[in-house]
Write a structure and sequence with these properties.
single chain; alpha/beta; 3-stranded antiparallel β-sheet; 39% helix; 7-stranded mixed β-sheet; disordered N terminus
Length: 414
Amino acid sequence: MTSDPMKTDPSSFKNGPLQGVRIIDATTVVLGPYATRILADMGAEVIKIEPSSGDQTRHYKPLRHEGMAGYFINLNRNKRSVSLDLKSPEGMEVLKRLLKGANAFIHNMRQQAADRLGLGYEAVRAVNPDIVYCSAVGFGSAGPYSGRAAYDDVIQAGSGIAGLFAQVHGQPMFAPTVLCDKITGHTVAYAVVAALLQQAKGGGGQAVEVPMLETSAEFALVEHLHAATFEPPLGEIGFKRVMSKFRKPYRTRDGFMCILPYSDSNWTDFFRFTGRTELLDDERFRVLADRVQHIDELYAVVEKEAPRFTNAEWEAFCNRMSIPCMPVRDLEGVLQDEHLQAVRMFQLATHPTEGDYRVVRSPVQFAEPFRLRHHAPRLGQDTINVMRDAGYSDAEIDSLVAKGAVLAAPPVAE
């Protein structure tokens, strides 16, 4: 890993395309913070509202100092932290003053909890009529599941994603990543940007609801609806190619590879390379539509032939013939990948209190390259400065701190 310009003065960096947009972020854990990190990386000023205990991901281990877990640092860069007791009238009044100057408010509370707290859409709209109000919820408010507790595993189960594993492998499984949280986080980000565009064009504010179940079901059905697109269905639901039990990384002589001939010419080259020339004229495999109908037999051929060659031999052949391929990497191997290293996907930064740490940059490249404007903040690190910007005097801030309505940690030089 090489040294990085992020170690220089962050004030020298240009902001991204959302520069000038202010977002009040009342989200926690992964879904919401991931969405607001995307927006922050695009240049938005994101003010993270936290209780005195902080976002729970602050406390996951391992960590160097309490409240600054690696999990939290990765999700909350380019944000500012303001700690408020929203159950106190004084803390809620501070939030309302911040909302007056904001373009958007994002939360991932259950909507009933937000309403009880006084943060429903109508209440926030009364403070700022033009605000974009985004609620990331488990289930859409119009359905019978509205208000239920929802976490990633629950949504993988309900959206059909866990069930896909059963159709292929015989039992349902969860993908070993918080897939639905991150899918929904991306959806929140683009939905908020769309609403901000309408706001900027004079369309005013609006309520935006992004439910996890609906988002994940739509995601799962993109290819799998297929035959069930028609009414009555023209076959079983599910796209056959990606549900083949033979669709998997194949064991080679020295490892595992994804070997994916796809076009007609790809398969011709594959059959010749492996000496399976008798399959060149096999009617089952001549064109894509036929291959999909006989995908198990076709992928079984790849599985049988893969162990004859090493990963390097497969990669050399596939790249020479423009056949998609990739060796299977573990997560450590991903960090060492030569392409990801070359595009500087992983960069080294120095946090003022946490020392050196790895930054996984935004994958999106605008004209101005990704920059780290703010390290992930300590709890309440920006409370004083943000409140001053909102017009509070130092005496008023001191009084609110003394009452416990706000928590203010000493600012840290970036």
